[in-house]
UniProtKB/TrEMBL annotation:
Keywords: DNA-binding, Phosphoprotein, Transcription, Transcription regulation, Two-component regulatory system
PTM annotation (4-aspartylphosphate): residues: D51
Domain Response regulatory: from-to ranges: 2-116
OmpR/PhoB-type domain: residues covered: 124-224
Upper lineage: Bacteria, Pseudomonadati, Bacteroidota, Bacteroidia, Bacteroidales
DNA-binding region coordinates: 124-224
GO MF annotations in UniProt: DNA binding
Pfam families: Response_reg (PF00072), Trans_reg_C (PF00486)
Name the UniProt record assigns to this protein: DNA-binding response OmpR family regulator
Database matches in Gene3D superfamilies: 3.40.50.2300, 6.10.250.690, Winged helix-like DNA-binding domain superfamily/Winged helix DNA-binding domain
């Protein structure tokens, strides 16, 4: 799952990113209003953590832009501005949650999880497709009764495919999902093919074959 942390306090942003990376999230950071607007206009995220007080502008204007785009990302306002007006205005514009500083990182993680689960996986803790089941809390993957051990990247790919089942996903979209804004700096996207090949092999060995189809010249598709 890919997150964007919009926070001008670099030490706090770094602490949040380090903790969430340990929870298997891919985190990108923006420290100013301009950086935040650039990223929400260029890249897709599963959840955005949004501070209201930003150098160069107001975080609520970033939220308005996210909603203007009909962007499906969940938004949690994370701000020291704990006034009722800020909270109400943010929720009226379309934020999913509001967390006042200071806060405990495990609580932030659970709020992110709750939003992603609600938005992408119908509020369920278990994701199922074909003979595959994924426990979103323990991050365990089973094919029938057999556990499948995946790397972090393979696990992210599996969730991305199942969450976009029966849709053709381009190689560039997969590269961006796995590596974030670093994808623009890569010489090629061969790493995507390598991870898909490994994921397909592990699923096939466990008895779930032919879930991922190569759509020639376009990308890949999860078949259900």
């Amino acid at each position: 799952m890919k997150l964007l942390i919009i926070e001008d306090e670099r030490e706090l942003s770094g602490s949040i990113a380090a903790f969430l990376n340990s929870e298997n999230y891919l985190c990108e950071q923006a420290f100013t209003f301009g950086e935040a607007m650039e990223k929400v206009n260029l890249y897709d995220y599963d959840c955005i953590l949004l501070d209201l007080m930003l150098p160069g502008g107001n975080g609520l204007d970033v939220l308005r832009e996210i909603k203007r785009q009909n962007n499906p990302a969940g938004v949690i306002i994370v701000s020291a501005k704990d006034s009722l007006d800020d909270k109400v205005n943010g929720l009226k514009i379309g934020a999913d949650d509001y967390l006042a500083k200071p806060f405990h990182l495990p609580e932030l993680s659970m709020r992110i999880y709750a939003i992603i689960r609600r938005r992408q996986f119908s509020s369920s803790n278990t994701l199922s497709s074909n003979d595959i089941s994924v426990d979103l809390l323990s991050k365990e993957v089973h094919v029938k009764d057999r556990i499948v051990v995946l790397t972090r990247t393979e696990y992210e790919l599996l969730l991305f495919f199942i969450g976009n089942r029966n849709k053709v996903i381009s190689k560039s979209a997969l590269a961006e999902h796995l590596s974030g804004d670093m994808a623009d700096m890569l010489d090629n996207q061969d790493f995507v093919y390598a991870h898909i090949k490994n994921l397909k092999a592990k699923l096939a060995e466990a008895g779930a074959d032919d879930c991922i189809k190569n759509v020639y010249g376009t990308g890949y598709k999860w078949i259900e």
